Every structure is written in C-alpha cells, then in structure tokens.
Predict the structure.
Amino acid sequence: MSNVSTNSAKQNTSSSPKIDSDPAGSPGGFPGELNGGSAKEHKLDRHSLGKLIFLVALSLALSSFTPFFLLAPAPLAFAFLLFGVLKTVTVGLFCMGIVAALIFQTGLSLTSAGVFLLSLAYGAIVFTIIKSQVHPARGLLKYGIGLFGLISSVVGITVWLAGISVRTYLLETVKTGINEIKNNAEYGQLVSKGGEDTRALQDLLQDPNSIVQEVMQWSPSVLFVTVIVTLWLSLFLILRNASVWSVMRPYPFNVKTLIDFKGPDWLIAILIFGLALAAGGDYLAGEWLQVVGINLLYAVGVFYFFQGIGVFLELLTSLKIVGLFRSIIVVFTVFSVWKILAVVGLLDNWFDFRKFFKKNNEEGDIV
C-alpha cells in the first residue's frame, strides 16, 4: 500500500512526482500563489469581457439551485485560469453585489450569495493547484481539508460572537420550516392520501427536537463530504476540459491522474480509529463518542469512494464500454451503490484491482 498513486499518466511525461512533493520550482503557499503573473497571462487579453461576465453569471445561476450548486465553482475556475485572479474577483464581486441588492429589495434568502462566495474560494483553489503544478490528488487532500477547517472555524467564531445557542437557533429554524411545510397545499394532499411513508413524515414533523439532534450529530461529516466532493468535481471538470486553458497555463497532470486516486497510508489509521469509536465509543464515554467515530468513517470514506470510482472506470474501460451507455452506468452506480464503491476503494489498497483488468492500448472514455 502506498501514498496517493502518482503512477498515472501525465500529459507529456510518463511519470508523476510523489504526492508529498511538488515539482521543482513550484510555489508553495496558497496566498502567494494567487499573486504575481507570468508572461503568458498577457495572452488572456484576447478573451472578451463578455466571456468573463458569462462565466461569472453562470456560476451565480448554479449557486441559486440546490441540485446544481456543486457545479458552481467550475465556471469560476475557468475564469481564473483564462482571465486571472484580479479580473475574475472584481467582476465576481460586482455581479454578486447587484444580486445581493436585488435580494434585499425582494426579501429573498442570501444563501445563493454565500454559495457564490464559497464558489469563488473553490475556483481560487483549483487555480492555485494548477498554477503551482501540484498533483491534483495532493491538492484535493491539502486544500479540501484546509477549506473544511476554515469554514468550521468561521462558523464557530460567528456562533461565539453572536452569543446564541446553536441548538436554540436550529430549533427555531426547524419549527419555521415545519410550519411552512404543513401550510403547503401539497402536504395536505399527501396527508389525505395516507400511506406508511406519509405517517412516517408526520411523525418526524411532530418531533422537531429529534430533527435538530440529527442535524447537530451529522453536520460535521456532511459539511466535510460536501467540501471534498465539490472540490473533486471542480478539478474533474477543469482537467476534463484542459484544452480550453492548457495552452496558456501548462499543467503536467491530466484527468486520469485524478481518476487514479489512491488514498495515503494515514487515511487507514484514521479509518481504524473511527471504526473503533463507532463500535465501542458508547461504552467508553457515551453516545457522543460513537457519533464522532461515525462522522470520521464518513469523512474518510469519501476518499475511498473516489478510489472506488477509479477502479470501476478502469473496469468499464477493460470491458470496452464507452459512450452514452458508459455514462449512464456510471451515474446509476454512483447514486445507487456508493457505499460499495467506497468499500472497493478501501480494498484496492491491498488487492490493486486494476492489475487484474485487461490492459488496453487506448485510454478510452473517462466517464
């Protein structure tokens, strides 16, 4: 078992640097990587302001819809790569200001504005990874965990400064949401039809305290998984469309490098620790320690999920399944048996499933 696999193909070379070291001469820190520029950045002038505004507007639109907010950072990452940091941030904040003003006028939620700000951060991270020539898997681990820590710290400090109880705030929010659901005409129609699922929903809505308890218990792992999945998707979309920006910003890794992700050894240690807490934490210090263990399992499991996806895609390639049918299979598998993919990714550390697949000379489709 080894650290994150770096044996994947580069775009122009046959080997990759180890995950724990950047290529020689690449910048190291996040803030510094966003400053300065290269001679190639002058070529960005040929791109029109309209294209930049379109990418920012697309990200704002995606930020407003829950199913698609995970994709919102990708257009901004393209904007960072094509137009640079200063232009993208300036146009982004300007557009967000207009949207915020409209929201205040209409009384709508500011959630989409907050999502857009996070998308700017994701876009900047992807830009940093590529500009610094960092291995995409190492960037996923380093910046994903760092961003989770930053968001958690900001939330914690905000709650502390506000001087309010998190449980009290969540309880009031949940009660408001429950009242809105019950006053909805569709809910009344659902109740009139009856059924086991409807009764279960009614029982859940009758006990807002249990809802708050569940939210407080599992929010750390949900936040962590959301951060990592969003960053992985952003990297995937950017690397999959590298032809758009690679001429101006050469990057020695391709999308297959990200797909061939292999978890480092220290993830196994965290997994074992989390498993021990999940199995016996309630006997040592009560239910809260068991909850910590389960949160750790989900947090580590997301990385093995990505590793399992890589194994599954390699299997499809060996079976020569390509095109639309391949994409349908991948989407169905990811949403229906994601836990199995995580287990496969974990076992891949010992069995190296890829070596059992038939070797193909052609790389084939990625998804």
